[in-house]
Design brief:
The protein is 49% helix and 13% strand. It has helices at residues 2-22, 41-47, 52-61, 63-73, 92-112, 128-141, 157-175, 179-185, 188-192, 240-252; strands at 33-37, 77-84, 116-120, 148-155, 205-208, 227-230. It has one domain (33-251): Decaprenyl diphosphate synthase-like (Undecaprenyl pyrophosphate synthetase, 3-Layer(aba) Sandwich), CATH 3.40.1180. The protein is α/β, with parallel strands linked by helices. A 6-stranded parallel beta sheet has the order 3-4-2-1-5-6, with helices on both faces.
């Protein structure tokens, strides 16, 4: 019975995906920047009877297909949340293999030279060799004329805002601006210009997998006006049809821009 159902799915899903893709709205109704919270690797691994590292490897293997789907519909910027600052407190026995899996995945993306990679996060909190590999991937793809992919590793929204304010203060201290003068002129754009994603459009759509319906600190500043889509599938099981459904749901919404 299970094999029969699997066979039916293999036949029906491609046809359903093609139907959804044909009904995609015009490009000007699609998101330009999509943030993705790749959640559920550990729970997926437990469900299939494997260890945590197996789940993270399965999740890493699904990143390239996702970026291909984004290319397919014309997304300009993608932000992938691969590791939070909270995750850095995990036991070394779990954290070290996870970091290795992440940088191997990033290296693989860089080697293809299809996308321009940009690490975002508190890289100073990462082991030196991990931070160095992320920076090298960015340097190797900086001239690629493709979709911009923010790789969020060691990322936390509160930390990003704190880092932005710290950078802003250092900048004005170097210019000789007093605190009183800065207090008079500072506005939201001053802070936005010092975020990890400075110069980029804010995310139009944020997708979270695994059924969790919370932001968890992802792009706290940038997502103030974002639309959110929560998918029940664990990240390793996230399929093209799930992505297309999310894009279609976004296009069907009447955006109120945070109101």
């Amino acid at each position: 019975m299970v094999d029969w159902k699997s066979g039916v799915r293999r036949v029906l899903y491609p046809a359903y995906e093609a139907r959804v893709l044909r009904r995609m709205p015009e490009r000007d109704h699609l998101p330009k920047h999509v943030g993705v919270m790749l959640d559920g690797n550990r729970r997926w691994a437990k469900a299939v009877g494997h260890d945590t590292a197996h789940g993270h490897r399965a999740g890493a293997a699904n990143i390239e297909p996702l970026l291909g789907w984004c290319d397919e519909v014309g997304i300009e910027v993608v932000t992938l949340w691969l590791l939070s600052t909270d995750n850095l407190n995990r036991p070394a026995a779990e954290l070290e293999p996870l970091l290795g899996i992440i940088v191997d995945a990033v290296d693989s993306l860089a080697d293809q030279r299809r996308w321009r990679l940009h690490p975002v996060g508190a890289l100073d909190l990462l082991p030196d060799h991990i931070a160095a590999r992320l920076k090298a991937a960015a340097e190797a793809t900086m001239d690629v004329d493709g979709m911009l992919v923010n790789v969020a590793v060691g990322y936390g929204g509160r930390r990003e805002i704190a880092d932005a304010v710290r950078s802003l203060l250092h900048e004005h201290a170097a210019l000789g601006t007093s605190l009183e003068e800065l207090a008079q002129i500072i506005d939201v754009e001053h802070i936005a210009d010092h975020l990890y994603t400075k110069g980029q459009p804010d995310p139009d759509l944020v997708i979270r997998t695994s059924g969790e319906q919370r932001l968890g600190g992802f792009l706290l500043w940038q997502s103030a006006r974002s639309e959110f889509y929560f998918c029940e599938a664990y990240w390793p099981d996230f399929r093209r049809v799930d992505f297309l459904r999310a894009i279609r749901a976004y296009a069907q919404r009447e955006r109120r821009f945070g109101a």
